[in-house]
Specification:
By secondary structure, the protein is α/β, with parallel strands linked by helices. Helix content is 30%, strand content 19%. The chain is globular and about 75 Å long. One of its GO terms (molecular function) is hydrolase activity.
Length: 669
Amino acid sequence: MAAVPLRPCRASGRLLPLLRGGARSRGASPWAAGPGRVAQRRYKKDVLPEPGGAAPAVSVTEIRRYLRAQGIPFQDGYSCLHAPSLFGPELPTAAGPPFTLFIDKTTGSFLCTATLAEGGWQDLQAAVELRHRGVPAPGPEEGEHEEEEAAEARRAREDARRIWERALPLGELLDEEETQTTKAAFGIAPLADSTLKRFGVRYLRAAKALVFPWFAPRDAALRGLKLLVAERQGDAVSYTEETFPRFDAYRNLFGLPLIGRRDTEVVLTGRELDALALHQATGVPCLALPRGATILPPALLPYLEQFRRVTLWLGDDLRSWEAAKLFARKLNPKRCSLVQPGDLQPQPLEALNRGLNLTKILRAALPAGHKAIVSFRQLREEVFGELANSEQVAGVKWARFPELNKLLKGHRRGELTVFTGPTGSGKTTFISEYALDLCTQGVCTLWGSFEINNIRLAKIMLTQFATRRLEDQLELYDEWADRFEDLPLYFMTFHGQQNIKTVLDTMQHAVYMYDITHVVVDNLQFMMGHEQLSADRLAAQDFIIGAFRKFATDNTCHITLVIHPRKEDDEKELQTASIFGSAKASQEADNVLILQDRKLTTGPGKRYLQVSKNRFDGDVGVFPLEFSKASLTFSSYGKSKAKLKKVKEEKVPSPKKGPNGGVGSSGKP
């Protein structure tokens, strides 16, 4: 039985009566909403800090030196340094105080698993100073959390508690027939009732949803839960999930309470159902990541420090495979193994349904660490995987721009895309919808808008997301803002000219913290004012482009770089050579996109998007765009398919053709 990937989703209308009469958690799902309750508006997208207000970067060497200077014992772990807790009363043992304070080697952030106190490197230094003065360091309840955030968390926990109390274990349903029907609907017929009971899985009959609990590792208190709804699509099952609290605060390693202190091996899965299937079939300790293959929050790393071997089995597609390799970097590749997706190595639940040997699949997991030199024998399986999954290798497909899929085939990690267009043609508006399209499909996106501020950019993207003018329908703002807030979208707070090193450091931080796979930089010229590397402006630009190219390759991250064109005759269409600066931009780029705006030169003409370079498979061409002022969106004309074909058939285009003639493939840059 095939399974369709999970879809995080807002409310489902059939679930609105679920907590009828209860208070709604502001920002939580309407699944727990009461009648007539209007959520207070707020905007809380994650924003990366400004250079002036950000904590200074700290290296692991500096952390070790500081701890030694302060007389704090520590041990070296895989991703963290382990030290005795500075928060709350110490619990000494025969071997000394327990090492429950975990300090991230990359960021200096800390988490005390005994008290759940957490913070940044500067917070830890302040706690050490207080300790030296004889003042106990503040616990988690005395931190600087805003009252508003704390109140929201309490409401979310209360909503979760009410849902949990109404849910029943599958074994306690009315009869065996209902239990089997429910299991069949979710595609979990092979899962035993004892497995579901062991992991605390319940069923909410009113919502027809499975309920997965989030228990605190310290006192086993209910901190939240995830609801999963199944929908049949032929032979496949599609899952929709919702969490309490909302996704950005949901940090549940499902299955963690079942992990023993002596366990040294664990398997990480992308779904709770996969963890159940894998544990039942192999008996190996299994944990499910809270957001699947989308992100591995660094705050969860301390709970994985005890394991000497970590196997990542996140999914059955190429995106899951790429995510597994990215997560292995955080976890320390030396202890990680990866299950490579394939027909005989599907997701664990599907493997169990098909009667495959899951123990054998785990034993065949590939080591994540790579040597500097490898032979084809070591690459053979990965090459076969790319040949067998050519559509997935092509990347994530755009939903709003199908013609772009026909040319670029998809959005791929590790590439550099250069985008240009005439002034006033709508470059920022187009590229925001281009990135939003990918973000809605789970591509973690970081926006660096140096030309317009984040409030204006967020307004544009929210309008595009809702595809309507919310100014005229303010009563819908909360609904769309809640859905928009769940997207894996982050903003840099830079504006105007910035130093390239500062920008790259921020991007590196975002990749580690939020598993960013797409960075949009709008635009290059606004960063060049602070460059003192050379008096030659072109040399400075070449350096920046080279730095972005290297970042994309090293971090397996796609960078979309907006560059203004050079000043040219308005009557001429832009070409690859029209990009401002030397030829390095087009040479380094994997893709070159040009927004052609004939409207500025021929009156009521058309706008076209031209793909003038495509390193993946060489297809280039143009397709028309139509701008909707109400929704600030671009969409292709209904006859774009025929026009796209005509463009690709023309071998020798004329640059002076009219709008209906199209522009053929450009020469290689």
